Structures are given as C-alpha cells and as structure tokens.
C-alpha cells in the first residue's frame, strides 16, 4: 500500500483538512486534522481513523499505524 492509497482510504471515510503520512508500506505514522475530532478523546479520535481502514488493519495490509490527531483549532495553534 502506498501513502496515497492510505490517504485516499482515510479521506473517503473521514472529512480531513490535512493528512501527512510517512511509512514503509506496512508501518505508518500519520498526522491527521479533522473537524470530526472536536469534543473527542484521543482514543475516540483513533477509533474514527481505524474505522475508515476497516479490514485493512485485520488483514495486515496496514500492519501498524501511529497517529497524531488534531482538530483544526489545535492544528492552527501548533502552526502559529
């Protein structure tokens, strides 16, 4: 799986303002900014992202995904 493939899958299931991915095809690190994260705890944010991947996590197409998840306001504050 390529970074573009993974990005497309996540964006198809979650409205994102920004996604940055790094990885080797199986192990990934993602920075994801989405308004869907508003009012959600960290685990809930991660669950939203994992839900977009569905069986890809279980079939080992994506072996590992580490992520930083931000709301648009949190992201803007980090960029300031």
UniProtKB/TrEMBL annotation:
Any Pfam family hit: BolA
Family of this protein: Belongs to the BolA/IbaG family.
Protein's UniProt name: BolA family transcriptional regulator
Gene source species: Comamonas piscis
